User: What shape does this take?
Amino acid sequence: MYPEIFKIGPFTVHGYGLMLGIAFIVSSYILTKEFARKKLDQNLATEVTLIAIVCGIAGSKLFHLFENWDAFIQHPVDMIFNAGGLTFYGGLLLTIFVLFIYLKKKKIPFLVIGDLAAPALALAYGIGRIGCHLAGDGDYGIPTSLPWGTDYSKGTVPPSAMFLNTPIAKNFPNGIVPDNTPLHPTPIYEFIVAVIIFSILWKLRKNEWIDGKLFMIYLILSGVARFLVEFIRLNPSLLFGLSEAQLISLLLIALGGYKLYYFKKNPQLIEKKYVPPVLVKAEVKAKRGKEK
Assistant: This one.
């Protein structure tokens, strides 16, 4: 584990922060290229990225504080300013909400941008998970005997603390899980799956589909991936034996499935596909040229 990559005087580069920064840079680059391909204003891509950065971090932190309300009440300052403690779905949901309002004012359908951002979102999530792996911040999985089981003893949240007073700890002497216990490297699993999802979306992105179809496929694929990985991670069950992340995943899968079914039953929606203003002007100019 490399919670801290290096130090220069008082300045410290943390593994998680570094990968988070790389994730935003890579996703911004991909999004800008996609905006250019669709003849959309590339400055808007920058604005969307900035909104995603601010709302992604703020939403992730707020969601984490809500999940750990008792700890937050006891140590509010530490919880707020701790570099860790970010919940992905909180950031995703807040970003979607804010972007929906922002794009509505810009008179650009949210689903148009959702389609363009889907591949970047998938890859950024995977890169961010590498940061979780480097930090060893508790996003790892349960003990395993598999040959690739990983030692997270040097992480910011050691296994002895992570599994304290849990059913898993009862299987170890004195109810303590040794810090060097091999664990499922779930962040690596998620990174690999994220790259696969990115590859699928990247291949499908040029299809002339109804606006929103690619984004719905992203919701389904990412939702299924998160739902499954939760079974080998330690997260408290919230309802029906499922964790909070699993319940949100099911909602996103259901939303994506419903919208794909709706699109299939209403193929005429393709006629309402969004056309960027620059293309509309070009078509009008070309039409006037023919009339002359």
